[in-house]
Amino acid sequence: MTKTSAKQRLAGSAAPIPTGLTTGAAPLALRRSAADLAGDSASQSSLAMLDRAMGELRAMKIAPFLQRSVECVRTEDAAGAGEWALKALEVDESNPIAWQLLGISREKLGDFANAIKCYETALPQLEDQGEIANDIGRLAFRLDHKDLAAELFAHFFQAHPEIADGANNLACVLRDQNRYVEAIDVLKAALGHHPECALLWNTLGSVVCEQGDPVTAITFFEEALRLDPVHAKARYNRGSALHGLARFEKALEDCEAALKLATDPSDLAMMRLSRSTILLCLGRVAEGWDDYEARLDPHFVGVTQFLTERPRWSPADNLAGKSMLLIAEQGLGDEVLFANTVPDVIEALGPDGKLAIALETRLISLFQRSFPNARIGAHVTYNVNGQTIRTMPFLGDQAGIDLWTPIASTLRRFRTSHAAFPNRPRFLVPDEGRINHWREVLKSAPAGRKVGILWKSMKLSGSRHGHFSPFGEWETVLKTPSVTFVNLQYGDCADEIAQAKAEMGVDIWTPPGIDLKNDLDDLASLSCALDLIVGFSNATTNIAAACGANVWMIGAPGSWVQMGADRHLWYPQVRLFTREAGAEWGEIMGVVAGELAKV
User: Fold this and answer.
1) What is the enclosing helix (H) or strand (E) of 576?
2) pLDDT of 140-180, one tens digit each?
3) DSSP-based three-state secondary structure for 12
4) Is 19 part of any domain?
5) Does residue 237 contact residue 33 with C-beta atoms inside 8 Å?
6) What pTM value is reported for the model?
7) 3-class SS letters over 84-99
8) Residue at 21 is within a domain
9) Strand, coil or helix: 486
10) Which of 250, 336, 396, 499 is the most exposed place for a label (fewest CB within 10 A)?
């Protein structure tokens, strides 16, 4: 195999990364606990293993090339390590050590897909497959191949049960698959062998926290800190748990201490983003939005990249007469929430300015009606080598765009304090004709006030479970007399509707002729035709509230959206019901039921 053919072999396994990319957003509300994967393909133990393997190759022609590659790895010259590994492969195309070194090089250069290919080529020929299985598992995890990562980590754990890193990594991927009981079992066994390992205590705390028990999690984080007082992630995680308990000042103290201890750029970006949510909860709005720019850091794990070469807007730029592109970001509900600033952007552009908005396809008709002079189109998102890339094909070559920005960044200019949030009845405009249509349709529902309900999100991974009550907790609300509950819940909800009928004696009426997940423009009209909507914050409640519907939102403590205010700043007509820190869901649901009975 020649050097060129080796490169061709790698290139055949992965699509090239497009040029002209600028980094974008990851969800603000979906912070992962900082109990990340342990181990390093270029660690001292890994390099020692390579040295031992090369001890048998001293007389071979490729030995000097391999040794130069290892030395480059030791000196963090990833590109050089790859070049020397390729030289070795020119001589012996099947040498597993050369492929492993090339994999280390590609991993360090951020080419994770090709790194996996290199490791997989080396794997069948290596005597100790456990170590490299751990390396492949970490890359599979980063590329979001969680099932493969779990299989590889399990292989490594079985081969080396004495290594704490193996248990930690397996527990992390089990946690991310919501297999909490299995993760805890793995960690308990590992702690039996390594009771002084702060890494394991920190990961145990992260699992328990995501199960919805921040109080117990804090105990485990504090044990990690007792064992290792400068453990940055344990400090950060304790702050996150305190945040969930609405102890914001203490949470901020821990987060800032973690920022001083951390050195990894991805950890620093994650921690700064977490600090943004704490600052927002404290009402320090301008500071919070400044820190929220950490989501654009190219080191932030999971960052979206926007395919545009136009100049990036900054809050100091004069927009008058400009052509501006806003790119919606994060989940569907967030795309709606952050559109709160669109009227302000239009005003700043003035009569000679032009606005384009790239957003989720299902929102196009609603936004086009709401902002008739703007150019509205769909963004398209791809995954390339584990990187999320968002494009705006409806704009063509974008030559007419003067400035662009992810839509949430406009908050740094237009929403820097509580007072900057306008008392607008709505900023999205539903179809009045369809509102009248739905008012007629609702007359065919059982008698009583027509109250729409939503009880879950389709994105319930990790800690988001703590933001939604179990459906059984709705019983006190659903038994409110003189109310017909109208199903607005998108996705598969047949089991809950059947449960309401069988266990609570309540019929939840489903409106005919509408796809609650995809017909979002019509959903906006239906929402405005109802007397009231009660539910947790998700895409539907945000659409309804943005259109001026009467909405009661139920939330968990520590929600950044409230930003320390006693009202919903984004949607002035919305009434908030927030569960107290440490309280059971039944308490706040009882309050909602009591208030509903009074209406």
Assistant:
1) strand 575-578
2) 887 777 888 898 889 888 888 888 989 999 999 999 999 99
3) coil
4) no
5) yes
6) 0.84
7) HHHHHHHHCCCCHHHH
8) no
9) strand
10) 396
User: What is the total residue count of the chain?
Assistant: 599
Kindly report which listed range (175-184, 393-402, 578-587) carries the lowest average pLDDT score.
Answer: 578-587
Q: How far apart are CA 206 and CA 239, in angstroms?
A: 12
Q: What are phi and psi of 7, to 5 degrees?
A: -65, -40
Q: Which of 146, 176, 195 is the last residue in one of the domains?
A: 195
The count of other CB atoms within 10 Å of the CB of residue 79 is 10
Question: Residue for token digits 């991974």?
Answer: 461
C-beta of residue 220 within 8 angstroms of C-beta of residue 208? yes
DSSP 273-330: HHHHHHHHHTT-HHHHHHHHGGGG-TTSTT-EEEE--SPBP-TTS--TT-EEEEE--S
Which of 434, 598, 571 shows the shortest CA–CA distance to 511? Answer: 434
DSSP tally for the chain: helices H, then strands E: 26, 13
**One domain, residues 271 and 344:** no
Same domain, 356 and 414: yes
The answer to whether 477 and 587 are in contact (CB under 8 A) is: no
Count of the separate structural domains present in the chain: 4
Token pair for 536: 């947790």
CA geometry: angle 573, 578, 583, nearest 5 deg? 165
Q: What is the CATH number of the domain that holds 587?
A: 3.40.50.2000
The tens digit of pLDDT for each residue in 522-579 reads 999 999 999 999 999 999 999 999 999 999 999 988 889 999 998 999 999 999 999 9
pLDDT at 1: 41
415 lies in the same domain as 498 = no
Closest C-alpha among 502, 428, 483 to residue 596: 483
**Does residue 170 sit in the same domain as residue 255?**
no
Q: How large is the average pLDDT for residues 283-312?
A: 94
CA dist 146 → 107, 135, 290, 459 (Å):
18, 14, 33, 17
- Eight-class DSSP state of 181: H
Residues 6+ apart with CB under 8 A from 398: 308, 309, 310, 325, 392
Q: Burial-class residue 147 by CB neighbours within 10 Å (0-12, 13-18, 19+).
A: exposed
CA–CA distance, 94 with 40 (Å, rounded to integer): 24
Q: How confident is the model at residue 29 (pLDDT cuts 50, 70, 90)?
A: very low
Q: Confirm whether 553 is domain-assigned.
A: yes
Looking up tokens 């902002």 gives: 371
296, 309: one domain: no
Q: Is 405 helix (H, G, I), strand (E, B) or coil?
A: strand
Has residue 17 been placed in a domain? no
Q: Which residues pair with 304 in a beta bridge?
A: 388
Which amino acid type is present at position 424?
R
Same domain as 169, residue 48: yes
Range of the domain at 565: 432-598
The string of pLDDT tens digits covering residues 434-461 is 999 999 999 999 999 999 999 986 554 4
Q: What CA–CA distance (Å, rounded) separates 494 from 579?
A: 27
What is the biggest distance separating any 2 CA atoms in the chain, rounded to whole angstroms? 90
What is the C-alpha separation between 256 and 237, in angstroms, rounded?
A: 12
Could you tell me how far CA 439 lies from the centroid of its own chain?
Answer: 37
